[in-house]
Specification:
The complex is a heterodimer of chains A (411) and B (173). Chain A is built from 16 helices and no strands. Chain A has 411 residues and is an all-alpha fold. Chain B has 2 domains: 82 residues, NADH-ubiquinone/plastoquinone oxidoreductase chain 6, subunit NuoJ (Four Helix Bundle (Hemerythrin (Met), subunit A), Up-down Bundle); 59 residues, no CATH class. Chain B is 82% helix and 0% strand. Chain B is built from 8 helices and no strands. In chain B, helix 2 packs antiparallel against helix 3. The longest helix of chain B has 25 residues. Chain B starts with a helix and ends in a 5-residue tail after the last helix. Classes of the chains: A mainly alpha (411), B mainly alpha (173). The interface between A and B is medium-sized, with 24 and 23 residues.
């Protein structure tokens, strides 16, 4: 891993503000007359290093939390608009204080643990749920030269870390000692394991084009946004990741009409709040990854790079809300069939075509990239059309005849 | 110094959680402790600069194998008190001890070409290059040099999947 002092402008800024000195002019070169000595004396660079690292982590995690609360408000208001109702509009101007009211309400509620629950696992599950969502932020470049760490296996790290949330949902469902929670946990595991495969395979196309696993390098490698070069990959990634986040139309993990509220049925108070935070936060991190992989991440004209990143994140978040408000919930067998019969073949086709194109065409030329974009668009439209025409998802419900002996006959 | 501290911390947690896997009576908790062990092993791999292996460890063992194990746990009859020692204690100790001795023996006996290469040139820059480009190295080895065994392994896995489907498929009357 390269030293964070190279390339990471935010880290270097804090580090040099604290420890700039004549002794380490190599790391913090004095540029201009405004150059001032840092706060710390010579020989205390390690402290500056630690403080800078902690400061960045604090900044990113707290910004993420604030954005997640804002996002809950945005989602509820927009869902209201989509469903021809008002949405939360009582607390504060336009209901802007609703997230704060929600948080206070959740904190004030009684924290119940069911008698039949496995106490330790029950209490641990919300933590295990929220940790992967925050860990993903570590490799996400959120602006020009701004990231927590540039890991050279970034996207693989994201995939690995997000796979832990399967375990958290199952822990919550199993330890609750409640059948509905158990069903929710089982459904979650089945669904998440199935959708992980198309999601990971849809990223491979991007990796073939970028030639790197590091998210920072992937942003820099995009000469035209990969959403144009990888429309099929984008479609599979979007559908698959909305299934991984248990959002409608794949929300039968917490289908209210069937299994109360799934794996977090028994949770109350702030533990429930942590689950909600993890779910809403996952939308933001997934949108961030989508912006990074498919829409040039933080790059954009005129506006500052951090703002561009936020705009793109909320663009994709809006897309997720739109899909949630529009599509009805699928049946369980349809969800499974959609992963295995529809998304998986499409992602394999995408890898195959992209690999051939990368081999046959010189990807350093811009004209070739546009040619690729044209071919891939056509393949995406044809593939989706063909698969939705010829693949039957789920099929008809089977006839089941149950013979119930009548009381009169049984005698 | 800091690295050593982290090593001992991770090693202690790893051994403790591995012992807990054996000692806990609740099978579900034992499986969760196994996940903790997997994570600490991933941490040790990061200390060795093998980030790629660490991530793969988390992805495959903590993310997938543990879920498989938990499913298997659910199929057992008595989850809460199922993890009891039985008569196979001594043979199990012997078998695992033999495997451990064998692994240490192989690790010490095998000449690791990459390591020799790095040590002989005695250049940190070269070592760093090797460590920062592990995925490329592995990709080159798997998809160029050893592509045939790699593909044969995937065909074997495909056969296993097909076999599983054939076994559990319901027969239509």
């Amino acid at each position: 891993m390269p030293s964070p002092l190279e390339g990471n402008a935010l880290f270097r800024g804090i580090y040099c503000w604290l420890a700039a000195n004549k002794g380490n002019a190599l790391q913090c070169p004095p540029d201009g007359p405004a150059f001032k000595d840092g706060w710390l004396p010579l020989g205390w660079e390690w402290l500056a290093y630690t403080i800078a690292a902690l400061a960045i982590v604090m900044l990113v995690v707290n910004a993420f939390m604030v954005l997640a609360t804002i996002y809950t408000y945005v989602e509820r208001r927009l869902l209201g608009r989509f469903q021809s109702r008002l949405g939360p509009n009582r607390a504060g101007p336009f209901g802007l204080l609703q997230p704060i009211a929600d948080a206070i309400k959740l904190l004030a509620k009684e924290d119940l643990v069911p008698a039949g629950a496995d106490r330790w696992v029950f209490n641990l599950a919300p933590v295990v749920m929220v940790v992967p969502v925050i860990l993903v932020l570590a490799v996400l470049p959120f602006g020009r030269h701004s990231f927590v760490a540039d890991v050279n296996i970034g996207i693989l790290y994201v995939v690995a870390v997000t796979s832990i949330s399967t375990l958290a949902m199952f822990m919550a469902g199993f330890s609750s000692g409640n059948r509905y929670a158990m069903f929710g946990g089982m459904r979650a595991v089945a669904q998440l394991i199935s959708y992980e495969i198309p999601v990971v395979l849809s990223i491979v196309g991007v990796l073939l084009l970028a030639g790197s696993l590091s998210l920072v390098s992937i942003v820099e490698a995009q000469r035209i946004p990969y959403i144009l070069l990888q429309p099929l990959g984008f479609f599979v990634f979007m559908a698959g990741s909305s299934a991984e986040m248990n959002r409608s139309p794949f929300d039968l993990v917490e289908a209210e009409s069937e299994i109360v509220s799934g794996y977090h049925t028994e949770y109350s108070g702030m533990k429930f709040g942590v689950f909600q935070l993890a779910e809403f936060g996952a939308v933001l991190t997934t949108s961030g990854i989508m912006a990074t992989l498919f829409l040039k991440g933080w790059e954009g004209p005129v506006l500052p790079s951090h703002l561009w990143f936020l705009i793109k994140v909320f663009l994709f978040a809006f897309l997720f809300i739109w899909v949630r408000a529009t599509l009805p919930r699928l049946r369980l067998d349809q969800v499974m069939a959609f992963a295995w019969k529809f998304l998986l073949p499409l992602s394999l086709i995408n890898i195959f075509i992209t690999a051939i194109e990368v081999l046959a065409l010189d990807t350093t030329k811009l004209a070739n990239l546009w040619l690729m974009a044209g071919i891939n668009m056509a393949v995406a439209v044809l593939g989706i059309a063909a698969f939705s025409r010829f693949v039957r998802l789920g099929g008809k419900p089977r006839d089941i005849t149950i013979e119930i002996p009548m009381a009169s006959e049984a005698r | 110094m800091v690295q050593e501290m982290f090593f001992w911390l991770l090693a202690a947690v790893s051994v403790a959680s591995a012992l807990a896997v054996i000692r806990l009576h609740d099978l579900f908790r034992a499986a969760l402790m196994l996940v903790v062990t997997f994570f600490t092993v991933a941490g040790l791999l990061i200390l060795l600069n093998a980030e790629f292996l660490a991530v793969v460890q988390v992805l495959i063992y903590a993310g997938a194998i543990s879920v498989l194990i938990i499913f298997a746990v659910l199929l057992t009859r008595d989850v809460e008190k199922g993890n009891r020692p039985n008569r196979l204690r001594v043979p199990a100790l012997l078998a695992s001890g033999l495997i451990g001795v064998f692994l240490v023996f192989v690790a010490l006996q095998k000449e690791w070409p990459l390591l020799e290469d790095v040590l002989s040139k005695d250049s940190l820059a070269r070592a760093e290059e090797v460590f920062t480009t592990t995925p490329q190295w592995l990709a080159g080895l798997l998809l160029r040099e050893w592509v045939l065994p790699f593909e044969v392994a995937s065909v074997l896995l495909l056969a296993a999947i097909l076999g599983a489907i054939v076994l559990v498929r319901e027969r239509h009357p």
